[in-house]
Design goal:
The protein has helices at about 1-30, 35, 45-50, 55-60, 70-80, 85-95, 105-110, 120-125, 180-190, 200-210, 210-220, 220-230, 245-255, 260-265, 275-280, 355, 400-420, and strands at about 65-70, 95-100, 115, 135-140, 145-150, 155-165, 170-175, 235-240, 270, 285, 300-305, 305-310, 315-320, 325, 330-335. The chain has 3 domains: about 10-30 and about 400-420; about 30-190, FAS1 domain (Roll), CATH 2.30.180; about 195-365, FAS1 domain, CATH 2.30.180.10. By secondary structure, it is of the alpha+beta class. Helices cover about 40% and strands about 15% of the residues. It is built from 17 helices and 15 strands. The two termini are about 20 Å apart. Strands 2-1-7-6-5-4-3 form a 7-stranded mixed beta sheet. The protein has a 4-stranded mixed beta sheet with strand order 9-8-15-14. Strands 10-11-12-13 form a 4-stranded antiparallel beta sheet, with no helix packed on it. Pfam families: Fasciclin. Belongs to the fasciclin-like AGP family. This is FAS1 domain-containing protein.
């Protein structure tokens, strides 16, 4: 009988060990480019469009890959100068994904000083011959440069820093600008279909579509108003509360500190152009103009059929199914209530949070975008952008996150208990 029990427990131990091993192996093999980039808010626009063009899923399914990321300023320049459609933008971004692993160290130790790499764009089958190959060369001055193989030897795109690495699986690095491509050239030569952002009057458009109270309040706050204007060119989506709801909220708004008023107003805009079709296909958190490092100020978009709601841990509102204004790069939607940022208002009341009431410095205009994190605030300690190439391994194979870590601990604990 005892022997039977011993063998029975051995079988359970063996099963749990196998489960634990399989779990660790699965986690070691997995990587998620959007989660890696979410640690770097200054790349949020690039990250957003990887998801929007469905390239993120393709990258996650491939090993190895190297993503040549550009920051929000470079992305804004492309979007504002040529206004590419999603198809063109997908081609542009596909050319930024190398189907090989180049970490910071490997880039500087390329055998022979140069290498050619296939790109995701070429792998799509839409290009012929060597078109789509990228030349990587270590220059005499030590800089690492990139350029198209068919670019007559011109290499004017430079490696700036390693952002994230899962060794030999995925590397995310920053480069100085987009690689020249036929897609960029086509977008630049296409006739402009969007209105000139310099001639767009945000407040006039809000006035004309039921958001007069919010528009007047925004106009009276020069810091917040200037942040809106500065972001129109690169893409902007505004969610303005309807007149009746915002008028009733004015006493609470006036009770905020000067700095929190700026953050509050900036919270109602996302630094990315989003059409209604895009909103209806989006689910998850998004950063706003108020997002600034530890001051997360994000909102969550949820859709149910034709209905789109915006949510924070304090309130939920529904946006109008018809945009007040929708011409790339600007979209304005009215909401049926005042969405309250959890950073300023408690979830149980609409009273300003005392901690934020004492704030004295207004946040900078954010250049940030969607982040899938659930934590109350973004921590600067999570940003490892300044690590050297030798230590740049922020996403280790066992960095499984909260839920995965709990499962691993549970399985390991069970094995230990049965072993005794």
């Amino acid at each position: 009988m005892e022997l039977h029990r011993w063998y029975g427990r051995s079988d359970v131990r063996l099963s749990l060990l196998l489960l634990f091993s399989a779990f660790v192996v699965a986690q070691a093999r997995s990587h998620n480019v959007t989660r890696l980039l979410a640690r770097h808010p200054s790349f949020s626009t690039f990250n957003h469009y990887l998801s929007l063009t469905l390239l993120a899923a393709d990258i996650n399914a491939r090993t190895p890959t190297t993503v040549l990321a550009v920051d929000n300023a470079v992305m804004s320049g492309l979007l504002s100068s040529s206004h590419p459609d999603l198809g063109t933008l997908k081609d542009i971004l596909s050319y930024q994904v190398l189907l090989d692993y180049f970490g910071g160290r490997k880039l500087r130790q390329i055998a022979g000083g140069s290498a050619l790499s296939t790109t995701l764009l070429q792998a799509s089958g839409s290009l012929e011959g060597s078109t789509g190959l990228v030349n990587i060369t270590v220059l005499k001055n030590g800089k690492v440069a990139f350029g198209p193989e068919d670019n007559d030897g011109v290499l004017d795109v430079y490696f700036l820093q390693a952002l994230e690495e899962v060794p030999y699986k995925i590397s995310v690095i920053q480069i100085s600008k987009f690689l020249p491509s036929a897609a960029i050239a086509a977008a630049a030569s296409a006739p402009a279909s969007a209105p000139d952002p310099a001639r767009i009057s945000l407040t006039a458009l809000m006035h004309a579509h039921g958001c007069k109270e919010f528009a007047d309040t925004l106009s009276a706050n020069s810091d917040a108003s200037n942040t809106y204007k500065d972001n129109v060119e690169g893409g902007l989506t505004v969610f303005c509360p309807s007149d009746d709801t915002f008028k009733a909220f004015q006493p609470k708004y006036k009770n905020l500190s000067a700095a929190d008023r700026v953050s509050f107003l900036e919270f109602y805009a996302v630094p990315i152009y989003m059409s209604m079709d895009v909103l209806r296909s989006s689910n998850g958190p998004m950063n706003t103009l108020a997002t600034d490092g530890a001051k997360k100020f994000d909102l969550t978009v949820q859709n149910d059929g034709q209905d789109v709601t915006l949510k924070t841990n304090a309130t939920t509102v529904r946006i109008s199914t018809t945009a007040a204004f929708d011409h790339q790069p600007l979209a304005i939607y009215s909401t049926d209530g005042v969405l309250l940022p959890g950073e300023l208002f408690k979830s149980s009341t609409a009273s300003p949070s005392p901690a934020h009431h004492k704030a004295v410095h207004a946040p900078k205009a954010a250049e940030q975008g969607p982040s899938p994190g659930d934590s109350p605030a973004y921590s600067p300690d999570d940003d490892v952008a300044d690590q050297s190439a030798d230590t740049d391994s922020a996403a280790s194979p066992l960095d499984v996150g909260g839920g995965g870590l709990h499962v691993a601990v549970f399985l390991l604990s069970a094995v230990i208990v049965l072993a005794n």
